[in-house]
């Protein structure tokens, strides 16, 4: 018997915890937190253990599938790629590049082969029809930060280990483990904050797990964050509490913001927020008068019609209270690799723009090169030039995760051809003509590309594969092969040779006279590893290919992978060095955002619905795809509708009974759970459920399918600036089932 110990970054959520995994004769025998991990220091949640279930899940696909006569049958990789080469290029030739769309989802960010090679596929397709889960999530925050700081990934986050006041709005890190903020063990860090006399304050329509450990919790009417935040900014000016602190020399647009929020007084917004004007002033005063404080807003503030405005105002508050870019405030990470805010000239740049093209049917503006996921169905359905006729999905399940999945499912069925790069036959991939499964995370190496750009502490960590690879393509090779096929190279192309050729070309372009040295230094590497070595060595801590001999290389980061990874220190002030706005300033008052405030003002006076629905996350679940894993699926049923006792009484709903929840055409049945944690007038139901659709192969999930929240949501409801879907605060009616 051979026992081995391995170290692996958990790929299941943004906390990116370091795991210690024991293997005996090729079988995982234990998964624990790695106490030496520089980022997570031993912390894990129950999902980590389910990595074993995921690896062992008999429903997880091991071979490609091809749909023949309506049924998916196992195929070889050669057959699968041949089928794609036979069917996809002719569609492109006949209908043009826009006719092939691509949709990419959340797990892509946790698989570095997918993340680094997806852009190559998108480029090869040359289509504007690129859709991603970002438009169901965080685009508003990225747009607001992009406009203010000059790059989409330049997003400040609370310096939690040094702050004295943390104001959390529309996030529940105790369940989600953080988002756009890599902060393993939020609970422990919050406790430490409280132990040193600091305060955690939560604003949420539900008294969440995070609110339960907070020093104060305030209910807010769903969707009212823009009003609360604008009134807090208004209060800062009215009370002369504005101070810019360390970034004072770099902020432009303060007067414009003052004027723009002049009408949003606490008194004007209080009723709509479901808060008193006094509370709004008190919250503002506490923020303004605490030396080390930070505001953090997440998905609850994004997935609403004023998502971009709300996200913007979160950081306007951080800036106007002098808390940006100072220890204990809202700070920026400095990642070791792949960060745009560490490359190019520092201090100014091109900034960000949206609307370089628009979606064909709804005219939604492109943001970050993508169109809203909620536009995909109509692009497939609506005849005309550039109609979408074929689709490639990569690790996404929008039939469940996006609003109005029933419409999307119908549209997918009408496609001429669909390919899915996915590990399950699920509600979305059941529509695919060819499914190409990636490897289990335990058989894959890993480096986080995005999350070190958003982490509570600077670090560099790499994971070797835990279990030996099988004889099949890596996910980067799958994507590169697809790219080659659509470029007309055929299914038999040698992807490694193609990768070498592309790398040589890119290196020549990027390094000019130094290209030969770079080629030489990376000659034994391939695929994402080679890209990573270049990114690390040219990054802010890198060895610059020998010019700074003490600097980082991939070899050094790999060498540290058995001992907790490399700690690169606590967050440091980065303004003005990280700014990439054309002005070289923090743009506090981007015209696009100011121009949207009148829409909010008009909405302030519209009548609020009686009953609205919001979402919820549970620590043992993850969006739509982990309900098939035994460790997580056991225990109490989690897809319940939380209803306040007042609402339950007036609607005659009883604990544990089924209720019908409806909105327009959509209607679902969910089990009622009566709870004083809810704000009256607000119902909470988790998303990602509804595993009762035919043709999926999720045997365990199908036993307790749950109700699909997104069946109630309108795919046309979006934040017009970011295109982000409205997933929260949607009007519903609810009645007991006979
Ligand atoms: N109502 C409501 N809807 C929501 C949300 C909400 O809060 N409320 N949240 C939204 C958010 S934040 C997000 S990010 C989206 C997520 O939406 P999606 O990005 O669509 O993510 P999932 O629904 O989790 O689907 C993940 C897919 O990836 C596949 N997969 C898992 N691991 C791998 C792998 O290693 N390789 C490959 N190739 N595939 C893999 C799974 O089988 C599944 O098909 O959902 C959104 N939907
Ligand atoms: N266990 C688990 N962890 C996850 C995921 C998961 O599905 N399960 N998903 C991952 C993903 S993809 C993401 S993006 C992150 C998200 O991470 P978080 O942003 O922390 O997401 P949630 O836990 O849904 O918390 C959102 C909170 O917003 C509140 N809310 C709803 N509407 C409003 C509103 O209008 N205003 C305010 N102020 N609050 C509102 C909800 O009640 C909820 O408590 O979590 C990630 N981590
Ligand atoms: S919090 Fe849980 S799921 Fe997230 S990275 Fe850590 S162990 Fe994995
Ligand atoms: Mo997400």
Automatic annotation (TrEMBL):
Protein name as catalogued: Molybdopterin oxidoreductase
Record bears the keyword Translocase: no
Molecular function via GO: iron-sulfur cluster binding; metal ion binding; molybdopterin cofactor binding; oxidoreductase activity
Record bears the keyword Iron: yes
SMART domains: Molybdop_Fe4S4
InterPro entries: Asp_de-COase-like_dom_sf, MoPterin_dinucl-bd_dom, Mopterin_OxRdtase, Mopterin_OxRdtase_4Fe-4S_dom, Prok_Mopterin_Oxidored
Source organism of the structure: Albidiferax ferrireducens (strain ATCC BAA-621 / DSM 15236 / T118) (Rhodoferax ferrireducens)
PROSITE patterns hit by this protein: 4FE4S_MOW_BIS_MGD (PS51669)
A Pfam family annotated for this UniProt entry: Molydop_binding
Keywords: Iron, Iron-sulfur, Metal-binding
Transmembrane segments annotated in the record for this chain: none
Domain annotation 4Fe-4S Mo/W bis-MGD-type: ranges: 3-59
Family: Belongs to the prokaryotic molybdopterin-containing oxidoreductase family.
């Amino acid at each position: 018997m051979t026992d081995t110990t391995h170290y692996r970054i958990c790929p299941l959520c943004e906390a990116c915890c370091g795991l210690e995994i024991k293997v005996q004769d090729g079988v995982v025998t234990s998964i624990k937190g790695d106490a030496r991990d520089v980022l997570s220091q031993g912390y894990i949640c129950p999902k980590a253990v389910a990595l074993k279930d995921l690896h062992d899940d008999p429903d997880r696909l091991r071979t490609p599938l091809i749909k023949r006569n309506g049924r998916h049958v196992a195929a070889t990789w050669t057959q699968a790629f041949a089928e794609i080469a036979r069917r996809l290029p002719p569609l492109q030739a006949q209908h043009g590049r826009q006719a092939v769309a691509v949709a990419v989802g959340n797990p892509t960010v946790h698989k570095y082969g997918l993340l680094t090679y997806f852009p190559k596929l998108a480029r090869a397709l040359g289509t504007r029809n690129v859709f991603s889960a970002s438009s169901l999530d965080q685009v508003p925050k990225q747009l607001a930060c992009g406009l203010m700081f000059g790059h989409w990934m330049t997003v400040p986050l609370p310096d939690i280990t040094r702050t004295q006041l943390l104001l959390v709005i529309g996030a529940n890190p105790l369940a989600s483990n953080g988002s756009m903020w890599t902060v393993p063990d939020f609970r422990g860090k919050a406790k430490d904050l409280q132990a040193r006399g600091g305060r955690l304050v939560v604003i949420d329509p539900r008294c969440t797990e995070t609110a339960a450990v907070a020093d104060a919790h305030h209910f807010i009417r769903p969707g009212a964050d823009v009003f609360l935040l604008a009134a807090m900014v208004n209060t800062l000016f009215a009370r002369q509490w504005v101070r810019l602190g360390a970034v004072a020399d770099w902020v432009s647009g303060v007067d414009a913001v003052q004027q723009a929020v002049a009408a949003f007084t606490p008194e004007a917004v209080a009723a709509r927020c479901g808060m008193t004007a006094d509370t709004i002033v008190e919250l503002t005063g506490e923020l303004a008068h605490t030396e080390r404080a930070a505001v953090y807003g997440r998905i609850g503030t994004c997935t609403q019609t004023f998502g971009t405005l709300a996200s913007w105002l979160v950081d306007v508050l951080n800036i106007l209270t002098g808390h940006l870019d100072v220890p204990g405030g809202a700070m920026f990470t400095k990642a070791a690799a792949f960060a745009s805010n560490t490359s190019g000239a520092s201090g100014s740049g091109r900034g960000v723009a949206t609307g370089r093209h628009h979606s064909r049917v709804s005219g939604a503006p492109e943001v970050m090169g993508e169109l809203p996921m909620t536009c995909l169905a109509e692009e497939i359905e609506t005849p005309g030039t550039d109609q979408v006729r074929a689709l490639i999905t990569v690790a996404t399940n929008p039939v469940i995760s996006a609003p109005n999945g029933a419409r999307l499912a119908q549209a997918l069925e009408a496609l001429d051809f669909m390919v899915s790069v996915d590990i399950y036959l699920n509600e979305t991939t059941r529509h695919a003509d060819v499914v190409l499964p990636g490897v289990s995370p335990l058989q894959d190496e890993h480096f986080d590309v995005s999350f070190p750009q958003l982490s509570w502490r600077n670090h560099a960590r790499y994971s070797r594969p835990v279990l030996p690879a099988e004889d099949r393509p890596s996910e980067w090779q799958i994507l590169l092969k697809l790219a080659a096929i659509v470029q007309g190279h055929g299914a038999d192309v040698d992807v490694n040779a193609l990768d070498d050729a592309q790398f040589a070309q890119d290196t020549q372009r990027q390094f000019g006279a130094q290209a030969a040295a770079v080629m030489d230094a990376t000659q034994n590497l391939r695929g994402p590893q080679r890209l990573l070595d270049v990114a690390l060595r040219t990054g802010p801590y890198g060895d610059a290919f020998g010019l700074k001999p003490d600097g980082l290389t991939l070899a050094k980061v790999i060498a540290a992978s058995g001992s907790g990874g490399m700690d690169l220190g606590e967050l440091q002030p980065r303004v003005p060095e990280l700014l990439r706005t054309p002005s070289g300033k923090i743009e506090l008052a981007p015209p696009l955002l100011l121009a949207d405030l009148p829409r909010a003002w008009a909405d302030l006076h519209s009548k609020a619905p009686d009953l609205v629905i919001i979402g919820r996350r549970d620590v043992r679940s993850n969006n739509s795809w982990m309900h098939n894993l035994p460790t997580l699926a056991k225990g109490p049923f989690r897809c319940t509708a939380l209803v306040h006792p007042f609402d339950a009484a007036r609607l005659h709903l009883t604990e544990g009974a089924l209720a019908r929840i409806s909105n327009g055409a959509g209607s679902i049945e969910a089990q009622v759970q009566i709870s004083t944690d809810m704000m009256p007038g607000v119902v909470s139901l988790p998303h990602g459920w509804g595993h009762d659709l035919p043709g999926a192969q999720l045997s365990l999930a199908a036993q307790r399918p749950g109700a699909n929240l997104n069946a109630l949501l309108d795919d046309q409801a979006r934040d017009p600036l970011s295109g982000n879907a409205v997933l929260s605060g949607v009007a519903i009616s609810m009645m007991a089932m006979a």
